[in-house]
Automatic annotation (TrEMBL):
InterPro entries: Alkaline_pH_Ca-Antiporter, NaCa_Exmemb
One GO molecular-function entry: sodium:proton antiporter activity
Domain Sodium/calcium exchanger membrane region: 37-188, 222-362
Pfam family, one: Na_Ca_ex
Protein name: Ca2+:H+ antiporter
Source species of the chain: Micromonospora citrea
GO CC term, one of those recorded: plasma membrane
Length: 366
């Protein structure tokens, strides 16, 4: 027993998240020199890889589509905490942080993760196959949430600027939670098979039927370590954010680009997990992760921000600008055309990745 415990503790998937949290505790709230920033960044990368490993263990145990929800919701909950923390301490420059971060998450998930998954799946099997009914429903939910929370505030007239009135913000928060809750019920209930992998002839298959699932004890341990790793990922990302802000300012990039960098870091676990799933011919699982993460990012962030706005000072800017609205509209239209056939080639994957590249370039040079 003692030897088994020692072996488990020396496993990098256990030791790295724990060391990353220790590093977080030692460096939190301090101004770090360059070498220490490098060390923190190394533990951040290790925590990301560990989070992916433990998420896959839990997903294998609970089965799909529950497994995809585990990583998406866990990352998003901690991401929300990070946004609220930065908004409380950020002053005027944080008034648009929620908008910038949520929009970045939508573009990264709906173009970056989705495009990468389709590209990998198509390169492996010539055509990436997925369930258009489940994926289409998820995309419709993401588009509705994004429009209600990020597009409508640009055109409302109750308040000056791209912001909601308190009543409008309350409605957006309740609607976001309701839609997300309804989607989870559909995904895990009577239409669960819409979100399972399919074969080329349309047959639904068990995502991990080829391997025995881990024990309850192993799954619970991985769940705990997943949460530890995610805390380390977001916490260490916040720790290195001053260095990122300095680098962004030194490169003469807009302040909003910091949100893009943080979103890229926080979404690394989903990106790696989706790429691994696509390599295993489980493109549907990759799309569940991509769209589920986008949905959770909006559906949980907006209600949290609505509550936090009670004590936050200054306006809460949620409405997107013209360039962002164009990119969001193009993403939704392209996503619909990609999803409807239930099959995609490298072309669709490449188109979505180009849209992500356009978002990053225009975020850096608006």
């Amino acid at each position: 027993m003692a030897a088994s415990l020692r072996s488990r503790l020396t496993d990098w998937t256990v030791s790295v998240p724990l060391l990353a949290v220790v590093t977080l505790l030692l460096t939190w709230g301090r101004e770090l020199p360059g070498p220490v920033v490098v060390v923190v960044a190394a533990f951040l990368a290790g925590a990301v890889l560990a989070a992916v490993h433990h998420a896959e263990v839990v997903a294998h145990r609970v089965g799909e589509p529950y497994g995809s929800l585990v990583l998406a919701v866990a990352v998003t909950v901690i991401e929300v905490a990070l946004i609220v923390t930065l908004m409380i301490s950020g002053g005027e420059k944080a008034q648009s942080l929620a908008r910038d971060t949520v929009f970045a998450a939508v573009m990264i998930t709906c173009n970056g993760i989705l495009g990468l998954s389709l590209l990998i799946g198509a390169l492996r099997r010539r055509v990436a196959v997925f369930n258009s009914e489940g994926t289409g429903g998820a995309l419709a939910t993401v588009a509705t949430l994004a429009a209600l929370s990020l597009v409508v505030p640009t055109f409302t007239t109750s308040r000056p600027g791209p912001q909601f009135s308190p009543a409008q913000l309350a409605f957006a928060a309740v609607a976001s939670l309701a839609l997300y809750g309804l989607f989870v019920m559909v995904q895990t209930g009577r239409h669960r098979d819409y979100f399972l992998p399919v074969t080329n002839d349309g047959r639904v298959v068990d995502a991990d039927g080829h391997a025995a699932p881990p024990s309850n004890r192993a799954a619970l341990l991985s769940l705990g370590l997943l949460l530890v790793a995610l805390v380390a990922v977001v916490g260490d990302a916040k720790t290195v954010s001053p260095a990122i802000e300095s680098a962004v300012a030194g490169a003469n990039l807009p302040q909003s680009f910091v949100g893009v960098v943080i979103a890229l870091l926080v979404l690394l676990p989903e990106t790696i997990a989706a790429a691994r799933a696509a390599r295993r011919d489980r493109v549907q699982i990759s799309l569940n992760l991509a769209l589920g993460s986008a949905m959770a990012s909006i559906g949980l962030t907006i209600p949290a921000i609505a509550l936090a706005s009670i004590w936050l000072e200054g306006p809460l800017l949620l409405g997107l600008g013209g360039t962002q609205l164009t990119l969001l509209a193009l993403t939704v239209v392209t996503g619909v055309l990609t999803v409807v056939p239930g099959r995609a080639t490298v072309l669709q994957g490449g188109v979505h990745l180009v849209l992500l590249a356009a978002f990053v370039v225009l975020a850096a040079s608006p």
